[in-house]
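Hi R.,

Here's the input for the 2'-deoxyadenosine-5'-diphosphate complex you asked about:
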Amino acid sequence: TIQEAYTERQTPNILITGTPGTGKTTLSQLASESTGLHHINVGELVKEKSLHQGYDQEFQSWILDDDKLVDELEETLSSGGNIVDFHSCEVFPERWFDLVLVLRTDNTILYDRLKDRGYLQKKITENIDSEIFQVILEEAKESYAAEIVVELQSNNIEDMQGNVARIEEWVETWKARTNE
Ligand code: DAT
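And here is the predicted structure with 2'-deoxyadenosine-5'-diphosphate in place:
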């Protein structure tokens, strides 16, 4: 089946997505250390390798070049063993991922994090609205099989530690099942 063709990798690929400020990079770094999976910070990569079509002043963000991004990552993702960290998820091919985690944060907490980050009011409001209407969660559900999309709370340190532990356990189980 198609599914079998896609599960040739020996180690899984995980996508960690969510509204900016929900904790993707922090969780990806910690989970990468504890699982040995390779962390790919897509936002950084887009800037570094110019996988964009310029900067959008109005939205204060880079205009992503989808094709360039997918080409850049194809080989690495095909081999498996990656944690991909990005605030959007529909740009990637569905076949890349074995697990899609959507981080969620309460409004007031997220507001403070984005304010601390120095975001302008317009950008804070946009992101808070996006979190309230769970835009990324819906996007993930539309782009990937329901059974691989998991919503995780990311409000405090306990959540973060619990999420790292869950990822670690999930990776071990996936490897055992795939390589048995
Ligand atoms: P993202 O990559 O989603 O933009 P981040 O990892 O940079 O988010 O985190 C934004 C800030 O919030 C950063 O200062 C770390 C903090 N943070 C993230 N997740 C947290 C959590 N679960 N508990 C407490 N602080 C958290």
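One thing worth noting: The first strand starts at residue 14 and ends at 18.

Cheers,
M.
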